[in-house]
Automatic annotation (TrEMBL):
PANTHER family: PAC DOMAIN-CONTAINING PROTEIN, PHYTOCHROME-LIKE PROTEIN CPH1. Pfam families: HATPase_c, HisKA, PAS_3. Residues 15-31 have a biased composition (Basic and acidic residues). This is histidine kinase. The lineage of its organism: Archaea, Methanobacteriati, Methanobacteriota, Stenosarchaea group, Halobacteria. Transmembrane segments: none annotated. The keyword Transmembrane does not apply. SUPFAM superfamilies: ATPase domain of HSP90 chaperone/DNA topoisomerase II/histidine kinase (SSF55874), Homodimeric domain of signal transducing histidine kinase (SSF47384), PYP-like sensor domain (PAS domain) (SSF55785).
Length: 517
């Protein structure tokens, strides 16, 4: 079937087979966002003068008909060509239509003109006489037209200039929300200028494409179901929150509200109003993190602090009844444990989900400062390769202090000499010792809150280490097979080994934490 200039193609709303088709139709490839020169280029030869052409063509025409050979040669150009492309129809005759198609859209247009194409409806850009590009939807006849020796092509404009009246476009230009109109097939007919500010795409670059291809894979199934429900049911007006890919490959959280347009609306089927809610989602995550932390503290206070308090009460009662002070020593140890618990709980409470003001510093300096606080006279510190670090120096020092304290306390249990090694690697930092190590059966639980293998331990030292490392966007794990760089003559550690993995400065934005080993 050939679409004539007076035809207005549309999909019947209740056509079930068409609904199935649009749900299973594969996504078309994305095009780049370069839509043409940013400056005003000189008009090409054959361009229509606005005053001279006003009487010859209908300025409101939004489509034209042409006959095109398989190799792209224009054999016939309809009278509405000047209204759509700004050139005289005679100037288009004999021209290669593919040369006028945007380079990124040329392959699907060429395929549609070929004899083996299965999809002969293509949304693409055509160069206007002004030097810019306009978006059109071209429908190519399956059969060759014998009177022309080529295929009849009906091209209809679908870009911003024809989607809304001028007064509405001027209103949308100043809006901060993103306004999108999709047609009955679920393809974008119009996006407001704010798409450049919110998502980084050039306005019009996603016209003719399904927005679902840009939705995060984890959100796509849920959004697709509600999207098509809104298309099929005029009464549906869902509100959705989901992640959407930006032009630079990042993800932003969008909140979208949909509303069906009247059946006779020329602009499309569904209106989608979206706004960037990434900051709000970040606040919600921080609040959820704080609530989770409060729940954890409630469990600690009700369990971990109650046990040593019971010990103190029992010891005081025994001392009172027997007139003996020996039980008070047991109570004193319980008091010391409470003091450590309170200190570590306060540390956990002050940990946030991120760091505020990272600075640059040397790894060796913060390592030696931490050892001066948490090291032991009976243990030896060996610093291997140094590194430049960007992060929160105070909190990283606290993490190292907890690792050193963990190594020293477990060495004291077996009354053994201890060597602790800290060295930068290509992927971060290694903190290892030559002590007894951690039982393989306990490795998965080592960083769990409250987990300890010693009677006087609190179980929160390594949990604090994990919190600090993850607040930098890094990871920490036990890695018994690590082989850190060592100074000549330094012993190879074969005990516990903690590996902090962090990106280098070239792998993250300039303001994010990194380790340059």
């Amino acid at each position: 079937m050939t679409l004539r200039p007076s035809d207005r193609p549309s999909a019947p709303r209740g056509d079930a087979s068409r609904d199935d088709e649009r749900r299973t139709r594969p996504e078309r490839g994305r095009s780049t966002t370069d839509g043409g020169p940013s400056s005003d280029p000189a008009p090409e030869p054959g361009a229509v003068d606005a005053a001279d052409g006003a009487a010859a063509v209908d300025p409101g025409s939004d489509r034209f008909v042409a006959a095109v050979a398989v190799d792209g040669e224009v054999l016939f150009a309809g009278p509405s060509v000047p209204a759509v492309l700004g050139v005289e129809r005679e100037a288009l005759l004999g021209e290669d239509l593919l040369a006028r198609v945007h380079p990124n859209d040329r392959d699907p247009v060429s395929d549609a003109l070929s004899a083996v194409a299965t999809d002969r409806t293509v949304t693409h850009r055509l160069r206007h006489a002004s030097g810019g590009f306009v978006w059109v939807e071209s429908v190519v006849d399956e059969e060759l037209a014998p009177e022309f020796g080529g295929r009849v092509v009906t091209a209809r404009r679908v870009d911003v200039d024809r989607a809304f009246p001028e007064r509405f476009r001027q209103f949308l230009e100043y809006g901060t929300d993103l306004v999108t109109v999709v047609d009955a097939d679920g393809r974008v007919r119009y996006e407001s200028p704010s798409v450049e500010e919110v998502l980084g795409y050039e306005q019009g670059s996603t016209v003719g494409r399904s927005p679902l291809g840009y939705v995060h894979p984890d959100d796509r199934e849920r959004v697709t179901e509600r999207f098509y429900h809104a298309l099929d049911d005029p009464e549906a007006a869902p509100t959705m929150e989901y992640r959407y890919r930006t032009a630079d490959g990042d993800w932003v959280w969008l909140e979208s509200r949909t509303r069906s347009l009247p059946d006779d609306a020329a602009v499309g089927r569904l209106l989608v109003n979206s706004r960037d809610v990434s900051d709000r989602k970040a606040r919600e995550r921080r609040l959820a993190d704080r609530n989770e932390r409060l729940d954890r503290f409630a469990g600690i206070v009700s369990h971990d602090l109650r046990n040593p308090l019971s010990v103190i009460r029992g010891s005081m009662e025994m001392a009172r009844l027997k007139g003996d002070t020996d039980p008070l020593e047991r109570g004193e140890r319980a008091v010391d444990r409470i003091d450590r618990l309170v200190s570590e709980l306060l540390t956990l409470a002050r940990q946030g989900s991120g760091i505020d003001e990272p600075t640059e510093f040397d790894l060796e300096g913060v390592v030696r400062d931490a050892w001066a606080t948490a090291g032991s006279e009976d243990a030896t510190l060996v610093v291997g390769a140094d590194a430049r670090v960007r992060g929160d120096r105070g909190r990283l020092r606290q993490a190292l202090e907890n690792l050193f304290r963990n190594a020293v306390e477990h060495a004291c249990e077996v009354d053994a000499d201890l060597t602790v090694v800290v060295s930068a690697t290509d992927g971060g930092v290694i903190v290892a010792d030559d002590g007894a190590g951690i039982d393989p059966a306990h490795r998965e639980d080592a960083f769990e809150p409250g987990f300890t293998t010693t009677p006087d331990g609190t179980g929160y030292g390594l949990d604090i280490v994990r919190e600090i490392v993850e607040s930098h966007g890094w990871t920490v794990e036990l890695r018994p097979d690590a082989d850190p760089p060592l100074p000549p003559g330094a012993p190879r550690p074969d005990g516990a080994c903690f590996a902090i993995e962090a990106p280098g400065p070239d792998a993250v934005p300039g303001t994010e934490p990194w380790i340059d080993g």
